[in-house]
Structure formats: C-alpha cells, structure tokens
Design goal:
Blueprint (H helix, E strand, L loop, with lengths): L6 E8 L8 H10 L3 H13 L4 E10 L4 E12 L10 E15 L4 E13 L14 E3 L1 H9 L6 E8 L3 E6 L4 E6 L1
Antiparallel strand pairs: 1-2, 1-9, 2-3, 3-4, 4-5, 5-6, 5-7, 7-8, 8-9
Helix pairs in contact: 1-2
Organism: Micromonas pusilla
Protein name: Plastid lipid-associated protein/fibrillin conserved domain-containing protein
Length: 181
C-alpha cells in the first residue's frame, strides 16, 4: 500500500449515510448482515430528528503503525414531536472510533474497530451529561461477546489514491470519497 494513504482525510462524498465512514458502523453492518440497512436507516432517522445530523467526518490512517481513527462530529437534538419540530436543545460532539488497520495488499486494508469515545463539545448545553464526556467503550470486546468469537474484520478497498484525494469502497459496495485535510 502506498504511503500516500497515511494522514488525515475529510469525507466529501458518500453514496450512503455519512456516519458509515466510521469503522464502528462497518463492523456493525458485518455483524447484522442483511438487517444492517434497517439499523442504518433507523440510526439516520434518530440522529436527524429536530435538526440533528452528522457534520464533518475525518478519517486518519497510519498504516505504518496499523491504526485508523474516525472522528464524526454529530449534532444531537431533543424535542417533543407534539409541540412542534423545533428542538428543546441541541449540542455538538464527536464520536471517535479507533481500530487496527493492516494493509493486506496494495489496495486492501483489513480493519477491526477497537474503541469508540464520546466527546461532548457543547458542555454548557447539557451539563448533566458531562459525565459522558471522553467515555470510551471497548467495542471490540463488546462485539466479541455478542458475536461469540472474534470481532468482525472488515475490508476497505482503496480504488483511487493521489496526494489530495482517496476513493474507498467497503465490502458491501458503499463508496467514500475523501480529500486530504
């Protein structure tokens, strides 16, 4: 695999939900199989309610050290549907997933998601939830327990790579276009 793949990459296009750029969702999809699409749709609906949604998504690759980190900025909102569609409050935070990433060939990277960390960026919005800030969940261990064996290994294929752009595709056909940031 070319050393050009290493570095920070911002997601600029996807043919699926933006949050699917995270290795966490790659692993969930592999575990859920055909029902993964239902889960993705439900997650998109939940995160998009009352003006919420996914913002900037950055993926960092360091194949020399076998690492991948995905940082998805999320706007979470809470509202009461019967009172209208304006949120009662909303705040920003990041969902950061880290994992192992090993180059299998010149175009394929094997990824196992290890941890997901919640970072609350708007601490004044929901002070009662500040205890969640920087909480790290060992998702590899959780998936190992749920799956009754090894955590899912997912393959990311690099279809195009130059100094400024990378096009990648998952096993399920989902395509992601990144620009170097």
């Amino acid at each position: 695999m070319s050393a050009k793949v290493n570095g920070d990459w911002e997601l600029v296009y996807s043919d699926t939900y933006l949050f699917r750029s995270s290795p966490f969702f790659w692993a969930v999809g592999k575990m859920m199989g055909e029902t993964g699409d239902f889960f993705y749709g439900a997650h998109d609906h939940q995160t998009g309610m009352f003006g919420g949604g996914v913002g900037r998504v950055v993926q960092s690759l360091d194949l020399e050290n076998n690492r991948i980190v995905s940082d998805c900025i999320v706007k979470a909102s809470l509202g009461v549907p019967l009172l209208g569609f304006a949120p009662i409050f909303s705040g920003f935070g990041s969902v950061i997933t880290a994992g192992r990433a090993v180059a299998e060939s010149e175009t394929r990277v094997a990824v196992v998601a290890e941890t997901t960390t919640i970072r609350q960026d708007d601490k004044e919005v929901i002070p009662a939830l500040n205890f969640l800030n920087n909480t790290t969940v060992p998702i590899e261990d959780a998936m190992r327990q749920i799956g009754g064996g090894a955590a899912p290994e997912v393959f990311l294929d690099v279809l195009y790579l130059d100094d400024e752009m990378r096009v990648s595709k998952l096993e399920d056909g989902s395509t992601f276009v990144y620009q170097r940031c």
